[in-house]
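subagent[fold] <- orchestrator: predict structure for attached chain, return tokens only, no commentary.
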Amino acid sequence: MAVETFGKKICRLRKHANMTQRELAGLLGISEPAVCKWETDSSMPDIMLLAPLARALHTDLNTLLSYEETISPEQVKEFADAAADIGETGGTGAETLYWKERLREYPNSELLAMACVKRLMKLQVQKAETKEQMELLEELLLTLCKSEAVELKLEAQRYLASFYITSQRFEEAESVLATLPDCDFNSRHLHALLLYAKKEYAAGRKECEQFLFECVQNVLICLSRLTGIAAAAKDTEKERLYGEMMCRLEKEFGIPFYRGATQMIDYYLRSGEEEEAVNCFEAYVENILNVEERLKASPFFCDLGEDIRFISNGALVSLATFREEACKVLRNPGYLKQIRGDERVKVSMEKMQAYREANEQ
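subagent[fold] -> orchestrator:
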């Protein structure tokens, strides 16, 4: 972390107080350009203005004049361990005092602030917190949520949402969650936790089912990539292992016509196992035609209904769109020439043709 100049510190504290340069100048009885010169380090405040400046910026002289801007991760850990020890021997009041002293000593150390946050969050979960500690926790989180460090800001936002949920401040939790990316794992978990805390169990279950559905699909996508890599490397043992695992997951979770069947068809044809390839192809087509029934029968995703979303090329799409993409695989099945004459393959292709014609009308 770079050392913060005195002028930059004034600027940061002023913005944190939601104050303009003109407003700060008015409180101190000086001109706006004078404040501008301070913040650009072109000049320094008169010594007689330091105390009024600290009060105007809602801080104290120790913080305003502190130049201890950096602290190592090792030092942060030492402080956190010491705070925990003090809490066990001297009680929560002593621990809180210790944290406040360290935070005053290193007011710009976001690492230290986050260490304090994690300790206080742990106490909240254990229901061992005090009102004073929760006030400090919220203050630190709101400050860290303004951090310029993207990952730290995101972590602080997650903690703040969790803090509000645990405190049953649901509207504030929803407001924080709205700022988090939808694809973030922890954000999705927190949203489900919020619904649970609000006793909206049906909505919470549906949220978790959709998230689980996406997680399983992502596992299948990874296995699909591994299957393709193994095939390119001519590692037939691994290729079969990955492909069979895909099919097993699809069956266990009730996820229809994903990548497992088509990749195993290709594997069986190259291995000369035409009967197995026919079985896979027949199952693939049946799953496309009966996808609604399969999903309804799934113990994991039966509540999703028409709201279910599939992952396709990194985006979430509807069942209808995903099924259309699955059908495209069969429109030019050149890889099926070895089994095209099989009666079951012919029947399956006729079923698919009838389905497409019915849906194109």
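orchestrator: received. Logging for downstream: The longest helix spans residues 201-232. The chain has a mean pLDDT of 85.
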